[in-house]
Amino acid sequence: MSEWLVLTIAMAAACAVVLTIVVINNRRIGEDDDPSETPDVLEYMTMMIGVIYAIVLGLAIAGVWEGRGAAQESVRLEAQALHEVSTRAEVYPADVRTRIRNDIDAYVSHVVHTEWQHMVDHSEVTEKGDDLLARVRQDVTLYAPKTDLEGQAYQPLVDQVAAADDARDQRAQNTEATMPPIVWFGLITGALITVGLIFTLQIRRTPRELLLAGLFSVMIAFLLFLIWDLDAPFGHGIAATPDPFVNRFPGAE
């Protein structure tokens, strides 16, 4: 049984139970009952639906913002690890040091100029980026240290390359959208219900009431747009940037 079918059955069952109880309760009410003596439940239900939807919107915004922060942090960790490799390679011979730094520069340049746009368009990293980082790993791991100083620097360099590879994997995982389709279904449906409940109240065409209704609808639309904009950590306006690479490797810009 699919999740959508389970959701539909659960929503239909909840609605049926509530409506059944209301119908049975109304049949038990006598003809002398005065509805004006009981409080109007419509405004209370409207308020509760608005509160519940506000909580859902807050959780959605917090989720996509956290995803965007995690994406930016993975970029920072990757750039920092590669910077450490480039810096600590100073103890190696000139030819080895130059080869390591050149391969790192080639990888960073590819990430900044090519792979970043590929992530935006296709929500995935490139195979060439994998190959360039694998070349850096080979430069570091296949070199046999010849002095004590080189031996002391060897394992930290290997660890930093592994850290860069792990950060790259995290960046690849963060390229996809954060919110699943079923959450978007709930957000859009909730927005339509919440805005539609305005028409159940005794709203008139006075400037003040029309202004408040318009501002309420604009606020809901803005919050949904904000969630959509943050939903793709690398793809929209408020997105993670390659600034950590550019700051650590100015030549890549």
TrEMBL record:
Keywords: Membrane, Transmembrane, Transmembrane helix. The chain crosses the membrane at residues 6-24, 44-65, 182-203, 210-228. The keyword Cell wall biogenesis/degradation does not apply. The keyword Transport does not apply. This is Membrane protein. It comes from Streptomyces finlayi.
